[in-house]
């Protein structure tokens, strides 16, 4: 087995972030930061000594939404993998987040197996 995959979580729901961290840690992943909105995410990406391999990105957030955050991340860190993870299942929003640079979309809620499978696609 190679290096432990590093992950950032961007979601305005603190309870959901905590749940995701537990699930990901149980799956053998390392969550290196969590952010409550896009501005928080960009700040943590710039200041964190470790770079995540992948970011789980909510779409609907205050301050800076997932669309703009994804666009900014891909401009600054084009190699970064982004899984958009949202309760929005409207086809236009999914197409828009993919156009902003998300690598895949995962609906909320999803099973732990679906989450692990989506992340392992990028290992």
UniProtKB/TrEMBL annotation:
It comes from the Bacteria. GO terms for biological process: phosphorelay signal transduction system. InterPro entries: Bact_response_regulator, CheY-like_superfamily, Sig_transdc_resp-reg_receiver. Gene3D superfamilies: 3.40.50.2300. The keyword Metal-binding does not apply. Residues 6-123 form the Response regulatory domain. The modification 4-aspartylphosphate is found at residue 58. Keywords: Phosphoprotein. SMART domains: REC (SM00448). PANTHER family: RESPONSE REGULATORY DOMAIN-CONTAINING PROTEIN, STRESS RESPONSE REGULATOR PROTEIN 1. This is Response regulator receiver protein.
């Amino acid at each position: 087995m190679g290096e432990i995959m590093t992950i950032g979580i961007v979601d305005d729901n603190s309870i959901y972030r905590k749940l995701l961290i537990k699930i990901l840690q149980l799956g053998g992943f390392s969550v290196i930061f969590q952010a409550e909105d896009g501005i928080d995410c960009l700040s943590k990406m710039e200041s964190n000594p470790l770079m995540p391999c992948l970011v789980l990105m909510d779409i609907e957030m205050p301050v800076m939404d997932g669309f703009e955050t994804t666009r900014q991340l891909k401009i600054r860190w084009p190699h970064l993998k982004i899984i958009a993870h949202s309760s929005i299942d409207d086809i236009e929003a999914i197409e828009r987040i993919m156009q902003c640079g998300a690598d895949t979309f995962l609906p909320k809620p999803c099973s732990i197996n679906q989450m692990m499978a989506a992340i392992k696609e990028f290992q």
